[in-house]
Amino acid sequence: MQLAPIILFAYNRPHHFKETLVALSNNVLAKKSILYIFIDGPKNMQDVRKIKDIEITIDKTNKNSFLKIIVVKSKKNKGLAQSIVCGINKIINKYGKVIVLEDDIVTSKFFLRYMNLALNTYVDDKKVFHINGYSYPHTKKLPESFFLQHASSWGWATWQDRWAKYEDDSNVLLKKMRAKSGAVSAMNLDNVFNFFSTLKANARGMIKTWAIKWQATIILNNGLCLFPGTSLVENTGNDGSGENSKQNTFFDTHKSDYENNFEKIPIKVSKKAMLETQNFFKKIRPTFLKRIRNFIIFNIKNR
Asked: In this structure, are strands 224-228 and 105-107 parallel, antiparallel, or unpaired?
């Protein structure tokens, strides 16, 4: 199995970064994988010190933990969205596929195995755009893997030919989404949760994020996303330390430490998983939508 390179994006959270790097190094395929670490540039002297701590953690990491570790430092602060898009473009065009992590994603030891199996299994199935490592909290047992027309940015993978379709212009996406029948409803999980408002906020210059643009790209191309039945990652950044998140426990999961019984499945939306996902967002909708509004207002005031 040809393994995909891993990209780990870091900025100014040395404690989170260390947790993420340690967990990743404990993955069963880590020693056979190339790891690229992209470190965004500082905004202030406090960032300089925190970035230095990240570099110290990298220096202390056992170099045999991965096939190779390559560090790419930015002299200026690009911001999360630009840093991620530029980093993915640089690596995916070289290798044809990539596994993506941010510095607050703690992985199961079988995360890389699942990502690579999925990337190799569905490489020729052009309808599959995205492989998720995260799976939302659910109350019912779901299949080992399933498809939705929904992408999570918390530990994921894709191929160069799919990523090449990524559209970074929010206004272009907004126009195309409104013109395509059923596209807005699909983004909103059949009108259960207003994700479309995030795309509109980007188009208006209120915020600058990338994941909602990738989600829109997938929908416009009728793509699907593979999920593990049980989450293979935990997001430790919901403690309020993240650039684009406030403190909450809505999405807390315990990563699965068992080896997923991976097999190829029919490429169609799972009705059971869709219903479970809709029920989850219905439950958190009132409080979480308020948090999104506050986040947008905060970004406008601090531009």
From this structure: unpaired
